[in-house]
Amino acid sequence: MSYKMMDEIVYPCTKCKMDLNHRIIHIEDDQPKRLLCLTCKTERAYRAPKIKKEGSAKVKRAPSKSSVAARKQTEKNLHDQWTQKLSASQRKPKNYRVDGDYALEDILSHPTFGNGIITHLVFPDKIEVFFGEDIKLLKCGKFAQK
Ligand SMILES: [Zn+2]
Q1: Chain centre to alpha carbon of residue 135
Q2: DSSP label at 145?
Q3: 33: CA distance to ligand 1 center in Å?
Q4: Which of 11, 73, 85, 131 holds its CA 20 to 30 A away from the CA of 118?
Q5: How far, in Å, from the CA of 45 to the mean position of ligand 1?
């Protein structure tokens, strides 16, 4: 579908909070870019509906890629969060022992991996420890039953 300047289309107005007639006041490549709500006279950017024709050259990202990006972002946030907790922790590092008794967010001093922070208690006898790069699953003493 192509558009012309000054065409009127029905588009959701965020100010009036309903679908209203808008006038196209700016066009690029036959697509509306800016609209004017005929009711409240506010300008807004036009966004094409999400469903696009197949083969459209204007699709920027495939959905799978953006979900991978979103997951990477989450991993990065988690990574940053633990890095911050590790560096800000006031707890005294505990030496790692296979029969050690640990609690969540304890700081662990490991002979190979260095200092880490306990991110998960894995019942009955393992801990997940964040060492700045990787999360390792380590054996420890059995947790007391709650
Ligand atoms: Zn409006």
Answers
A1: 20
A2: P
A3: 17
A4: 73
A5: 13
